Amino acid sequence: MARPRTPVGTFGDIWFETAGNGMVRARTRYRDEDGRLRRVQASGETERSAERNLKQLLSRRSHHGGLGELSPDSSFKRLVEVWLEDLDLEDRLAASTRALYERNMRQLVVPAFEHYSLREITVAKVDRFLKLQGRTSYSMAKQCKVVLGLAFGLAVRYEAMARNPVRETARLHKPASQAKSLTPAQVAAIRRAASGWRRGQGLNGPR
Asked: In this predicted model, what pLDDT tens digit does every residue of 15-54 receive, in sequence order?
């Protein structure tokens, strides 16, 4: 008789093994939302602590398990790849806008988040990043906020993140523009140009 399939969102038997450093690993197979079984493991000093850590990990996975392509444990770089693929799938952006989004994401954003998993990216991390960008350029910070908001929005739709952290960040403030006064030399140059404007023969210039 065939063994019954593990229902989606549940795990099978847990087994243990001792690593070379003396720590105990607890392992099992978890059936994700895409229907695939994946091996999940956690460690502890004893079988009991390893099992407890494993079940905590599985609990977080079941609450926000992802839809196969993305999960809370996916890297930020993986999110970027899936997001770019999704932009191409929708095919709603002009080619120049699509290229701008990818450039901003890869050059400005990825270096700051590439070593984080999605579950590790918090509102505080995103808020600080945008503020640091804003100190360099308001326009740059605004563009980063746009692509981050779009990418994290996709992660929420794929159930890999519980919320979009960009929505909770502080509002970006555009620096006030400062009026610049002309130097006496610049004023004199403008006056000379104005007085000589259309003064040639047959031209009607200023009187």
From this structure: 999 988 888 999 999 887 777 888 888 888 999 999 999 8
* pLDDT tens readout for residues 91-148: 888 989 999 999 999 999 999 999 999 999 999 999 999 999 999 999 999 999 999 9
Strand-pair partners of 31: 37
Cβ atoms of 150 and 83 within 8 Å: the answer is: yes
Burial tier of 66 (Cβ tally within 10 Å: 0-12, 13-18, 19+): buried
Predicted TM-score of the model (pTM): 0.57
Asked if residues 197 and 203 have their Cβ atoms less than 8 Å apart, the reply is no
Instruction: Kindly state the helix (H) or strand (E) to which residue 41 belongs, with its residue range.
Output: strand 37-44
Kindly report the length of the chain.
207
Alpha-carbon torsion, ordered 72, 75, 76, 81, to 10 deg: -110
Backbone angles phi, psi at 117, to 5 degrees: -85, 165
141 in Cβ contact with 106 (< 8 Å): no
CA atoms within 13 A on the CB side of 195: 6
Angle formed by the axes of helices 123-136 and 138-157, to 10°?
160
